[in-house]
Amino acid sequence: MLIPTPTRILLCLKPVDFRKSIDGLVAVCEIQLEENPLDGTLFVFTNKSRRAVKILVWSYGGFIMLYKKLEQGRFRWPKSKEDRVRLTPAVLAGLMEGFDLSNARRLKRWNPKEKSDNASTIG
């Protein structure tokens, strides 16, 4: 199974109830985050203990949900005053592998201005 390339990646910083399945997470996207879960965005959610992650993305007629649970340790999310942060694929990969990116820095690079959304960007 292939996961579609997302148009953007949003990490929801507020923990969600992991008894929620696909429909419950779709409701979180629509009501809490005021985002359209059908637009190709990949949403990353964590539980209160930050020992597990659920990823939700729309793909051609249906949702894909991935679940990862750590047997030891906790995921280290970036800090932000916002309720979500926008991630690059590289930063998401690092976070999912257990890297603490709080002190990491990226070399300066040029990118054209992107349209602003409701999330700060990490990476």
Structural notes for this entry:
The protein is α/β, with parallel strands linked by helices. It has one domain (8-122). Helices cover 15% and strands 28% of the residues. The chain has 2 helices and 6 strands, in the order βαββββαβ. It has helices spanning 22-32, 89-96; strands at 8-12, 41-46, 52-59, 62-69, 84-87, 120-122. Strands 4-3-2-1-5-6 form a 6-stranded mixed beta sheet. It starts with 7 loop residues before the first strand and ends with a strand. The mean pLDDT is 87.
Which descriptors apply to this entry?
alpha/beta; six-stranded mixed beta sheet; 123 residues; 2 helices
Q: What's the arrangement of secondary structure elements?
A:
Blueprint: E1 8-12, H1 22-32, E2 41-46, E3 52-59, E4 62-69, E5 84-87, H2 89-96, E6 120-122
Parallel strand pairs: 1-2, 5-6
Antiparallel strand pairs: 1-5, 2-3, 3-4
Q: Summed up, what is this model?
A:
By secondary structure, the protein is α/β, with parallel strands linked by helices. It has two helices and six strands. Strand 3 (52-59) and strand 4 form a beta hairpin.
